[in-house]
Amino acid sequence: MKSVFTLALSLLSLVQAAPPTANGTRFSVDGETRYFAGTNSYWIGFLTNNCDVDTVLDHISSSGLKILRIWGFNDVTGKPASGISAEKRGVKLIINFVNNWSDYGGMPAYVTAFGGSKESWYTNSRAQAQYKAYIAAVVKRYINSSAVFAWELANEPRCKGCSTGVIYKWATDISAYVRSLDRNHMIILGDEGFGLPGATSYPYQTSEGVDFVKNLAIKDLDFGTFHFYPQSWGLGNAAGAAWIKDHASACKKAGKPCLFEEYGTSTDHCTIERPWQQASLQAATEGMAADLFWQWGDTLGTGQTHNDGNTIYYGSADATCLITEHVRAINSL
């Protein structure tokens, strides 16, 4: 298997300021220590037109969003066409190394190449050797860039039916490996926040092999992440406030920031998601440091970007509610 991805990020090499850091339960970015807002865009790295990349980054930056989470992988069995680059516009990037899901290859691509299953991927020595080789290639390329917000081990790692010790040991080993390559940038797991004290519903359980509190204590992980998709998890939308508060509490106890890294619904975005943003912002002194909605949408030369039902398009009424008004609320603190 070839794991090939040309990051659309010449922007990474242009900034000389110190990289973002964790400061207690807050983030410090470009000299500011406060609460930040951001978004996700899995597709920006796959754009093939420089003007489209520039347009998206201009829109994100001008909207007041500081953090952009992207896919730093494209696990394939052949070499794709080269990617393109774009200049930085004050947006810091969370770069993810592998997907739990089959989108753009992910762990299933490693399984195809090296055998086993997604559950055994974490302990498959050949798969892990290839994974680490890819990490080294990406990290070494951008090690001197202050535009990197954090390196992320995986998108939504799960090990269904496994002991929580499997992901814990893997995350401990891989985060230490990344730290050996790069002492300056932050490192995170990228999990959904499963396995948490506070309730007994599905996401609070450890059936997916994830223990949020235990993983948060890993020395080389700088902050905690969690997601929220109530429609997929069999929860009501109102459960979001407690989910946020419980993670904030765990992060405050650990002395690390909490990032509400993904959240979304397929309908009534403003009505449903705005209270989650408000709950996160209200916990800004209790462990919460930032939130990133899923996902950014824009209009490119070829038309609108992919709409997975959760997409918030630039310039829309939903964007006014969830971006403009949210940023205004943050700035008023």
TrEMBL record:
GO terms for molecular function: mannan endo-1,4-beta-mannosidase activity. SUPFAM superfamilies: (Trans)glycosidases. Its EC number is 3.2.1.78. It catalyses: Random hydrolysis of (1->4)-beta-D-mannosidic linkages in mannans, galactomannans and glucomannans. PANTHER family: MANNAN ENDO-1,4-BETA-MANNOSIDASE 1, PTHR31451. Belongs to the glycosyl hydrolase 5 (cellulase A) family. This is mannan endo-1,4-beta-mannosidase.
